[in-house]
Specification:
5-stranded antiparallel sheet, Chitinase A, domain 3, alpha+beta
């Protein structure tokens, strides 16, 4: 923009690598304060509302067959899936202009649907698209503008090999997919690519080593015996639900005439000292603490019981050995605490007024009837899920299958990505979690591996039943599922259909068929009365 003579002011940039931050700031003469850090945290960063232009680009590593072609699908957890956080940034700040630099791999057959979804999402936000395919790459030939040098000159300067990676990624992915289809191979791992021949004027020859779907031998899956599950809703259950609602609508009132008791909420000022010195994070003012919540370490809360408002207290505790901050592990600490306020929880009275405030009903009687109805429906769903889980577990126990290690590894990696996504939604990065817990990736994979194996065995068993019983999802089933997706994402059905390609529809159909397989084995199960001891437990 400087070269074009367009004046501008940088509002922010996003970078997490320290070296890259320093380099960017030095080259562009910008302050590191304008870096808001991880793009995943964009919703938590206050940025100007009058942004005219946002420029971004897709990390390229995952859009390469040679790089295992993981792609940047939303929710995948790959580096390239940052493109969806870029969408979130645009949605939040609605700049007048968006510039998005793609990479060639995004436009390959394998990833085209993801690209289309990305474009449709921008359209849905309200942007008109103007796309241009260029191959300026990194070529800088003296005497030519970037990207304008003739092929022969670029080849002479850099060698023909400079073009091969893009060419390979453009053609190999489609060939690979076709070969899988023609050979009726169902791959369950990403390919290991070995390029045999890639030379000018010669055919491209490469091998792709993949793990194929293992053969499953079904055992008994019809006539599975299940314990008959019956749930009743009793008066005490209804009372329990209403008590929860009372708790949620309780108010805190100041206590003047007594000291601190268990379950009170106290407002405190505190400062912690280790070896006579204050430590980072050990100071707080007007902090609300529920006595008995175990929010603070050791016996901190217990030592406030019996103290009065306005009283200053010395609280002695010991940090646990597994504490996340290494410098404080196992260390004794002294906290200087001032009890400023004491508050107790006051529950609302159970009457018609309470019912009208917490529900759509005018009387307590009507509200109780509604609670009973909802509880009954919930118990029915619980019974249904319990029955499904029991029958599927027994079906899975009866199958014979050898799980390929790459298949298990990939499922485990996917579970780690899902876990990282859940952490992110709670405001905690995966790296922060690993640092706090002292966990290694290998250890985490070891923990998740048994569950990964269980998931795979379950899916394989149900898919085998789909094949054995010739279970299929109809076009009507798929349309219904797309309607559900539209409701979930609060989008028009037609928009969802535009975003979903044939491959995605096929996958939806497979998933629905698997669910039908669950319904099939449950329908063909045999319910038996539970043993007397089981009845007593219920």
């Amino acid at each position: 923009m400087k070269m074009l003579g367009i004046p501008y002011e940088l509002a922010f940039f996003s970078e997490i690598d320290d070296a890259a931050i320093k380099s960017y700031c030095a080259i562009h003469k910008e302050s590191p304060q304008k870096n808001f850090g991880d793009l995943k945290n964009v919703e938590k960063v206050p940025l100007p509302n009058d942004i005219d232009l946002i420029i971004g680009g897709t990390p390229c590593q995952d859009f390469s067959l040679a790089g295992k072609g993981a792609g940047g699908e939303e929710g995948s957890g790959t580096r390239s899936s940052l493109m969806w956080y870029y969408i979130r940034l645009i949605s939040l700040y609605k700049p007048k202009v968006v510039i998005w630099e793609n990479v060639a791999g995004v436009l390959t057959h394998v990833h085209m649907q993801n690209y289309r979804k990305f474009i449709h999402t921008l359209n849905a936000i309200g942007y008109d698209l103007n796309a241009k395919l260029v191959n300026a790459k990194y070529f800088n030939i003296p005497g030519f503008r970037k990207g304008k040098a003739p092929y022969k000159i670029v080849e002479k300067q850099y060698g023909a090999q400079i073009f091969y990676e893009d060419a390979f990624n453009e053609v190999a992915a489609e060939v690979y997919e076709k070969e899988l289809t023609d050979a009726n191979i169902e791959a369950v791992s990403r390919p290991e690519i070995n390029i045999i021949q890639m030379e000018k004027g010669k055919d491209l020859i490469f091998t792709a080593l993949v793990q194929t779907k293992p053969e499953v031998k079904l055992g008994k899956y019809k006539g599975i015996e299940l314990k008959k599950v019956e749930y009743t809703v009793e008066e005490k259950d209804i009372d329990h639900e209403i008590e929860h609602m009372q708790e949620r609508n309780a108010r805190l009132v100041n206590v003047e005439d007594r000291p601190v008791e268990k379950e009170d909420t106290v407002v405190i000022d505190f400062e912690g000292f280790v070896d006579g010195e204050p430590f980072q994070g050990g100071k707080g003012e007007d902090y609300s603490l529920v006595i008995g919540s175990h929010s603070f370490i050791d016996t901190f809360e217990d030592q406030l019981v019996g103290k009065k408002a306005g009283e200053e207290v010395d609280v002695n505790v010991t940090f646990p050995e597994e504490y996340h901050e290494a410098s404080l592990k196992g260390k004794p600490a002294l906290f200087k605490v001032t009890v400023k306020e004491i508050k107790k929880k006051e529950l609302p009275k159970l009457d018609d007024e309470f019912a009208s405030e917490v529900s759509e009903f005018e009387t307590l009687k009507e509200y109780k009837a509604s609670v009973k109805k909802n509880l009954t429906e919930r118990r029915k769903e619980e019974a249904k899920r319990e029955k499904e889980n029991e029958v599927v577990e027994k079906v899975v126990e009866n199958i014979t299958v050898e799980l390929p290690e790459p298949m298990v590894d990939e499922q485990t990696q996917q579970m780690i990505q899902e876990f990282a996504g859940r952490l992110s939604s709670q405001g905690l990065s995966f790296d922060q979690y690993m640092q706090m817990t002292g966990m290694t990736v290998d250890a985490l994979m070891g923990q998740m591996k048994p569950e990964a194996e269980k998931r795979i065995r379950t899916r394989l068993a149900l898919e085998a039943i789909v094949d054995a019983e010739k279970i299929k999802a109809t076009a009507k089933d798929i349309d219904k599922e797309i309607e559900n997706m539209a409701n979930m994402y609060q989008m028009e059905v037609d928009k969802i259909k535009e975003m979903i390609g044939d491959a995605e529809k096929e996958q939806i159909g497979k998933d629905l068929a698997v669910q039908k397989a669950v319904d099939f084995v449950v329908k063909n199960a045999v319910e038996v009365e539970p043993a007397e001891e089981d009845k007593e437990e219920k």
